[in-house]
Amino acid sequence: MPHEEPLPFWLVNVPRDQWPTECPDFLKELGEKDRRIIGTPDSEYKKLTWDEVKHFISINRVDKFHRVPSELRRYRQFTHRLVKEYGSIMNFIVGERLQWKTMSPKGRPFECDDDIKILYNDWPYGIDDRIVHLVVWTKFELEDDPETGLSTPASNQEIDSYVLRTFGSRLKPENFAWFKNWKSLKSVHAVEHFHIMLYDPDPDFMKEITNNDVPMTAKFP
Known about the structure:
One of its GO terms (cellular component) is cytoplasm. It comes from Didymosphaeria variabile. Pfam families: DUF3605. The radius of gyration is 19 Å and the shape is globular. The chain has a 4-stranded antiparallel β-sheet with strand order 1-2-4-3, sandwiched between helices. It has helices at residues 32-38, 50-58, 69-86, 89-98, 153-167, 203-210, and strands at 116-120, 131-138, 176-179, 192-199. It is built from 6 helices and 4 strands, in the order H-H-H-H-E-E-H-E-E-H.
């Protein structure tokens, strides 16, 4: 049998009748890691279980979180369009998703509800479908260690107290966990935020806590 050449990464997971004639602009400048992920068939991708998600958070290996290959492709297409239309991802986040007129906080960290907004992660990772991924956006800074790029112990305590206060009354402790991306992993640097993972939460609670938010992945074709 003749040897079959592997598909270029930019054709993987794309129906043959939709194959572009060349690599799309939004994929041309990708790093090797994203090329490798997008070049993996969805059928070969294994979604993380809740136990795996909690484990990676507990050992601070959030770099292990990746999107499903076809979703990463859509994410790259979406952010490419955002930069062209809004000038930057930050402009879109602040103006459209957060709709904040000012970035100046009213109070100290976690003191004023107006300084915080909880939304769905627009492009969640490849995780068990029962896991809900939220992002907590804040107008105030959460201190990082300048040497490690990780949250300081004091900042960790502030976040931990807020998460327990906000989610602990509605979920069992083993069914939620939070993490803050290392600086090197952040896709949005200019607006402070951290992530919450929740296992099989009440949908009504999710509507309440996100103010009926809908992630962009559900809106983008």
